[in-house]
Hints:
- It is rod-shaped and about 120 Å long.
- It has 2 domains: 3-111; 186-270.
- Helix content is 72%, strand content 0%.
- The protein has 271 residues and is an all-alpha fold.
- The chain starts with a helix and ends with a helix.
- It has helices at 3-14, 20-32, 34-50, 57-61, 63-74, 89-113, 142-181, 186-195, 199-211, 216-232, 236-249, 254-270.
Amino acid sequence: MECRETQTLLSAFHDGELPADDRVRVEEHLRGCPECSALLADLARADQAAGVPDPGPAYWDRFNARVTGRVEREADGPKVAILRPKGGWMRQQLRYLVPAAAAAALVVVVVRYGGMNPGAPTPTVPPAVSEPATPVPAADGMTSGMEADRKKMAGAAALMAEQEVSGKAKSASGMRIAKESSPGSPCELARTLAERERFREAEDAQRACLAGDLPAPSREKELVFLAELLDRQARFPEADAVIAEVDRQFPQSRPLDLYRQRRPMVQKRRE
C-alpha cells in the first residue's frame, strides 16, 4: 500500500471504522512509514485538543450517510450529483476545524468583553493570537469619563508636588542666608570661611573662638583645627608650634593623631 492510499484511510483507521483486511494493510504500512505514523499521531492529538467527548461508534457509523442524505434532500433538482467522501474523511476535517473554531471563539470573547470591566484580570490569550485585546468603551461614555477624572487627579497631584518642592527650596534658601548673616559662634564662622577657602579670615575667627571659655575636649579639637588653617596658608612652623602645644596640653590626643595622618596631604595640596 502506498502512502497516498494509506493517508486517505488514516482517519477511519483511527476511529476503528475500517474493515479487517484494510486495517491489516494500513497497520503493515505504518510499521515501515514514519510519515504516515506521524499523521496518525497528529489525529490523536487533534482529538485531545478538541476536548469533545466521542459520541461512540454507533454515531460515526451513520455520520456520512446522514450528511449525504441531508444534502440530497436539500439539493435543488432531482439529478444533482453528490460527491460521497471516503470513510472517515469528514470526521478527519472536523478534527482540525473544531480546535480552530474554539480558538476563534475565545479571541472574540477576549476582544469583545476584555475592556468592559477595567478592574477584572484580563483573560490569557493563546500564543497563536498576535493582536492584543482592545478595550471597548461602555455605551454611556463611562470609560472616557473615568479617564478624564484620572487625568485631573494626576494634574492636581503634580501641581501639589511642585508647590511642595518650591516651598522646601525657599525654606532652605532662607535658612542658609540667615545662617551666613548671623553665625552662632566664632568657631562656626571659622569653619564656614574655611569651606570658602578664606583661610586668613577663618584663622582670625578661630583665634577668637579659642579666646573664649571652652571645655577641654572642645579646646583640643579647636587647637587642631587652628593648626590645619595655618598649614593651609603654608605657615608650617606656626602650625608646628600649635601642634606642640596640643601635645603638651593633651597627651595622646586622638584628634591630633587623625590630623597627623592627613597633614601631608594638606601641606602638599597647599604647596
